[in-house]
Design goal:
Layout: E1 2-7, H1 15-28, E2 32-35, H2 54-64, E3 69-72, E4 75-76, H3 82-96, E5 100-105, H4 110-116, H5 125-140, E6 147-150, E7 155-159, E8 172-175, H6 181-189, E9 192-196, H7 200-216, E10 225-234, H8 238-247, H9 252-255, E11 261-263, H10 265-277, E12 282-286, H11 293-303
Parallel strand pairs: 1-2, 1-12, 2-3, 3-5, 4-5, 5-8, 8-9, 9-10, 10-11, 10-12
Antiparallel strand pairs: 6-7
C-alpha cells in the first residue's frame, strides 16, 4: 500500500503552502504529494493569492524534495498541447530524478474554461485518447527515431520525440467513474486507475470494471495499480475534527457523507483497511486546508503508522 497527500491549491493557496505540505509528506514517510490541475476557485470566498500552475509548481517541488512522488490528479486534456505536455513532464521527471507521475483526464469545469478562454468541447474522450497515444508514443519512441501521428484532433509530423523522461515508463494515471470508456482507456494506456469521492461499494464496482477491461484486451489486471482519492479530516478528538471541518466551510454532517474519511487516526485507519480489502493499492488523502500544516503532519505522524503496508 502507498499513501499520498492530495491538495486543491486553486482554492486559495500559494506555492509556499504547497511546499510546506510536500515537505511534511517527505518528512513523515508518505509516498507522494499530488495536486489538482485547475486555474479557478470553485468554492465561494477570497480568491487570493490566485491560481498556481500545476506543472510549474511540480517543477519547483522537484528541486525542493528528494524522495516523494510528485504528480497531478489530474491534468485536463484541454489545457495543453499533448506534445508540449510530454516535454514538460519529461523535464520535470529529470528535475526530480525520476519521481513524476502524470494524471490525465477529460476535464469537467466549464466555468474555468470560459474564464480563461480555454476551448471546452462537449465531447472530450477522443481528445483524451489521442493525448494518451501521443504522450506515451513520444516517450516510447527510440532515440534517433521520430514520432508521427494523424488523428482527428492532433497531427504530429516527424516529431523528434525528445527529451526522454528518466523513468521508463513514466507512470500514467487515468481515473473517473465512467462505466465503459474510462476503464477501457486506463486498461490500454495507464499504469494506474483512480476512482475518487465515492463510497467503498462504488470503489469495488469501479475496480471490477477496470479489471474486466484489462481482461478484454489481454492485459494482466495485476499490472494496473488501483487507487482511491478521498477528502480526509483527522483529529485527536471531536473538537479538533469540528475545527477542521469548519475551516473548510462545512459542517460535520456535510463532510461525513459516507465516502469521505473523517475521525480519529484509528477510525480512519479502519476505513483504509476496508479499502485495501476492496483492492486499493494506493490512497490519496485529500486535505483541503493547505494552511493547516499540522493536519498534514498528523496524517504522517499519527495516521500513517496505523495503516496497512
Amino acid at each position: 500500500m502507498e499513501y499520498c497527500l492530495f491538495t486543491e491549491p486553486q482554492e486559495g493557496f500559494s506555492y509556499d503552502d504547497q511546499l510546506a505540505f510536500a515537505r511534511s509528506a517527505e518528512q513523515h514517510g508518505l509516498d507522494g504529494f499530488f495536486r489538482s490541475d485547475h486555474y479557478l476557485r470553485m468554492a465561494d470566498g477570497d480568491p487570493l493569492p490566485g491560481p498556481t500552475d500545476a506543472w510549474t509548481t511540480l517543477a519547483g517541488l522537484a528541486r525542493e524534495t528528494s524522495r516523494i512522488r510528485l504528480g497531478t490528479l489530474v491534468s485536463s486534456v484541454t489545457y495543453r498541447v499533448p506534445a508540449i505536455l510530454a516535454i514538460q513532464v519529461a523535464q520535470v521527471d529529470a528535475m526530480s530524478g525520476g519521481r513524476v507521475e502524470l494524471g490525465l483526464g477529460t476535464g469537467w469545469f466549464a466555468r474555468e474554461h470560459a474564464a480563461y478562454g480555454i476551448p471546452f468541447p462537449d465531447k472530450r474522450f477522443d481528445l483524451l485518447e489521442e493525448q494518451l497515444q501521443i504522450v506515451t508514443g513520444l516517450w516510447s519512441t527510440p532515440v534517433g527515431e521520430t514520432f508521427s501521428f494523424d488523428g482527428a484532433h492532433h497531427r504530429l509530423d516527424a516529431a523528434p520525440a525528445l527529451p526522454k523522461p528518466v523513468q521508463t515508463p513514466v507512470p500514467v494515471i487515468v481515473g473517473g467513474g465512467g462505466p465503459k470508456r474510462t476503464p477501457a482507456l486506463a486498461a490500454r494506456y495507464a499504469t494506474e486507475f483512480n476512482i475518487g469521492f465515492v463510497t467503498e461499494d462504488v470503489v469495488a464496482e469501479k475496480f471490477d470494471g477496470v479489471r474486466r477491461a484489462c481482461d478484454t484486451i489481454g492485459r494482466d489486471p495485476g499490472s494496473l495499480k488501483l487507487s482511491v482519492a478521498l477528502p480526509t479530516i483527522i483529529g485527536a478528538d471531536d473538537a479538533e475534527i469540528e475545527r477542521r471541518v469548519a475551516a473548510i466551510g462545512q459542517t460535520r454532517a456535510q463532510f461525513d457523507n459516507g465516502a469521505n474519511l473523517i475521525g480519529t487516526p484509528a477510525e480512519v485507519a479502519e476505513r483504509v483497511e476496508r479499502l485495501a480489502a476492496r483492492g486499493a493499492q494506493r490512497v490519496y488523502f485529500q486535505l483541503l486546508d493547505l494552511r493547516d500544516v499540522d493536519h498534514a503532519d498528523q496524517v504522517g505522524a499519527e495516521l500513517l503508522p496505523l495503516l496497512p503496508r
